[in-house]
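Consider the tokenized backbone below.
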């Protein structure tokens, strides 16, 4: 009887054309808290107050009061084994695109080349008045931080109620429509439009492999109940064994 890992590895080797869709769970093992789990960020702070574009426009200090969560340690956060495993799968010609909801930049830091950051990136911070670009964590102090021109700074990330970058969303949709397999990693799969992507993939004939410590996507073809930092390197290992034969 093939193990679940052997089954998933053979599927990925046979089908290739794999797209990964990742969420905060893949970065937890890098020390970055998730949003909706016990002790998660949105358990402490109401996102409709602290991460809403309407509130930001009226009172940016609410969002910026969380700057230590997102920006202070930006350079210190490092990719973990899960990010590197997805990079290896891209090098092996199996994963062709990583779509991420995460704003931490860790997939690019791990060396993944084809990355779609559909919620933007906390690395890019700009002045809402003159457009001057800054890079996390090198921004002025203050809640909120101001540009030299007096404008308020804002990260290039998508707050609740804000439009997603259309080019990124279009690419994410096209990749999901045409992939043969989707690795759904570390996401509660409840925030749209990202949450629609696994259904888009499935409706177009793709097999869905969910990797999560609890089942979040009810329609997965395979569910690996494991931490991403354990499961993804095991899948890479199984593929290497298949490639040897
Ligand atoms: N490995 C895999 N999955 C994990 C791990 C782990 N080590 N630890 C936690 N998880 C799973 C949780 O079970 C949960 O399903 O990661 C998921 C985290 O869910 P959320 O905190 O809701 O994060 P995410 O799905 O990325 O949220 C989507 O919501 O707040 C917005 O824009 C924000 O991008 C974010 C979006």
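A designed sequence for it:
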């Amino acid at each position: 009887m093939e193990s679940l890992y052997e089954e998933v590895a053979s599927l990925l080797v046979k089908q290739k054309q794999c797209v990964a869709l990742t969420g905060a769970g893949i970065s937890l093992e890098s020390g970055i808290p998730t949003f909706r789990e016990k002790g998660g960020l949105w358990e402490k702070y109401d996102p409709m107050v602290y991460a809403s574009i309407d509130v930001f426009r009226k009172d940016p200090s609410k969002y910026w009061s969380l700057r230590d969560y997102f920006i202070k340690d930006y350079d210190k956060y490092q990719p973990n084994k899960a990010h590197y495993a997805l990079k290896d799968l891209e090098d092996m010609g199996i994963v062709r695109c990583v779509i991420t909801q995460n704003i931490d930049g860790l997939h690019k830091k791990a060396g993944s080349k084809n990355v779609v950051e559909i919620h933007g990136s906390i690395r890019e911070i700009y002045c809402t008045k003159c457009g001057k670009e800054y890079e996390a964590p090198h921004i002025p102090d203050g809640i909120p931080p101001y540009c030299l021109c007096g404008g308020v700074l804002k990260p290039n990330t998508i707050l609740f109620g804000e439009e997603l970058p259309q080019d990124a969303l279009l690419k994410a949709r096209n990749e999901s429509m045409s992939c043969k397999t989707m690795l759904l990693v570390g996401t509660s799969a409840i925030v749209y439009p990202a949450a629609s992507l696994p259904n888009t993939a499935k409706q177009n004939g793709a097999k869905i492999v969910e990797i999560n410590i609890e089942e979040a996507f009810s329609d997965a073809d395979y569910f690996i109940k494991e931490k991403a930092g354990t499961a993804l390197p095991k899948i890479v290992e199984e593929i290497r064994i298949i490639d040897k034969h």
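The radius of gyration is 19 Å.
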